[in-house]
Records
---
Amino acid sequence: MLARGYQVTGKFKSTSRVRKLVAPISTWEPTASPGREVAPVPVPVELARPCAQYAVRTPSKDKPGGYYQAVLFSSRTDLAMQVVVDHYDGRAGREADLKGDKRGLGLGVLRKHKLAAQQMVVLLGQWAHNVLLWARGWLAQGAPRLGRFGIVRLMQEVWAVPGRVKLRGAEITRVRLRPEHPRAWDVYRALPPLLASGQTLGFLGKPWQLGAGGIIQPPWDVGRGHTVDHLPREQPAPPGLGTLSTGHAQGRRDARRDTLRDASY
């Protein structure tokens, strides 16, 4: 990647190589992390492109007086030493996004034998990631709490709400949700801004419905202090939807935490 002109920041973890690079260092400087220290590498490793290389050591939790050592390298030679360390530490947010995609989109189990096919899987994963984040913004207009959800919770809780969609040709005319799901009311409040004229939204088995013009009273008691935990725990699903079970641990925790007292009807 360096040879092809990419900007790269990474780390050497090989114990023998790091030990040789760090051995000549006698002066260390503190970093923003308590106990962690950094110093320039006196004799950098030769790479495809000139890179800044800095040794970093962190006190060992297992060996008193010992250190975990590594060498950071960055093609961003214009950055100061401390900035390079902070830049590398900033990978945590990106790694969290990657882990969320891997778990929420099931990328960990999608493996193709052909390179072109695997590249297509990666591109589709990026596309799905972007669409989910765009949709989260749209849904948050009606249900602000959904704006805090990551990829995993969007897939497991929001887009997992079962229901039925009625089509007339290629046009959606009616959407019905299963009211027993812990996130059914959130989705019910989130969808109206996305409805077109003539499209209706309601709940399966309930006579109430929502048109594009306004919001109805919910089909269950949501007085102050009532939570979605008061909904039935399990109901038989409509044909083709399997069994709806809302008793999983994450759903129970969220149902207890997220009350409907802040809902705007």
---
Amino acid sequence: MNTNNTVFLYTDGSCSKNPGPGGWGYALFYNTSQKDDYGHALETTNNRMELQAVIEGLNALTRPMPVRVFTDSKYVMDGATQWMHGWKAKNWQKKGGLKNADLWQKLDKALAPHTVEWEWVKGHSGDTWNEHVDKLAVKGTQKAQAILAKQNGKSRAEAES
């Protein structure tokens, strides 16, 4: 997919009953290599999972790299490119409170060693790799739902309804 020294990172987050069980997924591409991963949270929001996907993808890199992040989340992209610098300068504070400050700080740390470009892609519009990471994020959400259902003695189908 990628023939230069830039890592391509596709990310997505998912949440059922926002807030509720959620998942994140990413696909990393470097030269001819691809690495996918996904995870879950039992109680979260879609925005938190979108942030977590980028954090996990960047943290999977073993050395500083040029990275191109593809996301369908304007919240994450605008936060990282426009708002985060100001939040950091104000010690991660903003009038009315900064939602997800813990993850914004983790994202700041994960971004630090890399040279990052951001590209927004429209979600559910047929972009092959955005659809791929969406499936990974949904898989994470389904895992969280299954864990909750088991804890509550229900089947996953009952938990999803």
---
Amino acid sequence: MRSQIGRTSILAIALLLVLGIVSATAGAVELTVTTHWGAGTIFEGLKAAVERFEELNPGVDVTLLAANPNKLSVMVAGGSPPDAHVGVNARLIYSFAKEGMLAPLDSFIERDADLPVDRVIPSAWQIGTIDGVIYGMPLHAVGATFWWNKEHFGTAGLDPETPPTLADFDDFTRRLTRNHPNGSLEQLGMAVYEGFNAGAVPLDQWSRSRGWDNVWDAGRNQYSFIHPAVVETIEWFIRYRQEYPPEFIRSSFGINSFAQWFAQGKMSMVAGSPLTAGEVANAGTNLVLGVSHMPSISGSNMAPNETWQGSIPVGAGNPDLAYQLLRFLSLDPEGSYLFHSISGHVPAYLDSLAWDRMRESSDPYDQVRAIAAEILSQSPSVGPQGPFDYRIPYLVNALNTVYETGNVRAALEEQQNLVNLAVRDWLAKVE
């Protein structure tokens, strides 16, 4: 594998010299790269990978800048786009491409005879492809996986190797929940309504596990929230909130984070990701974990892949060098490993050293993370997502309204109308 890294790096340097992008005698070539991640472990990994790219390509000087979607839009519209942007999700890449902010990558890929396109998680390419045009280089896969505490299962008389189905999920939760003599929670099966983005992410995940697969109708250019799976999931959330109120859970455990409830051994099950294994390892609780697809009905998109992408904005000053950097981060064994090794994300590139480290590790948390990674590698694409993050604020607002009024369909209809009004305004600007 090390010789493969050497060959890849030599080829990259040779290609840059042939294209005239860098010169052994010329001054430094400046490359400006904006990123969705301005801090945290994934940003540290990105910095490490960029520094290695600079080492392999003397004369290249990369500047990393944090930029949210609004800042990136302003930079492009103002005529001062970065050379590349790292960190475009499935929703943003659709809107950016439709708004003419991103340069097609097809010509770069066609000229790159050594690009290992068949060694990428298949669904990852689909997310960066809009109307048959490639706008994104796949970076890392993101999707829901289901985790459980095997010791809790055994103590409750459940098979530690078998996760619940949707049909018996409520029974599992009750059997896994225990109270202290004073009435506070000692252990909770699961709070299904708790999760990222004020509960919108678990609503999205559990609705998909029940068959909600037409969030965005590309033919009609509209979102659809009123679906039996969404209604059923919200009604399920309401029952869980009544039986296991969020304030009661937090006061019992003295911890605000649902992820830490699981990592600290307070909660028995969680809808997580490959990062869950790292969270438990960092907690030092020595939990024995199981991982599988999300419990779901037959045929549903259980853990859709939402691979993040790297793109080149329209008007970039050095698109050829930007492509080589994205290639290094995305489809180079060493580059993709450095980028993702600190954060623990799963590279979309199947020959990344990160995959070898997970598979060969004797660490039980690396081993279980490898199982979660395999699940994501076999998962279908999340599918078209439309121009907005429909979860924020629309699903969040729907949930908040439901929890106040109890009227599920009315709340969903109100937010569906609002997001589709916004879509019509957006279409008027881009068409």
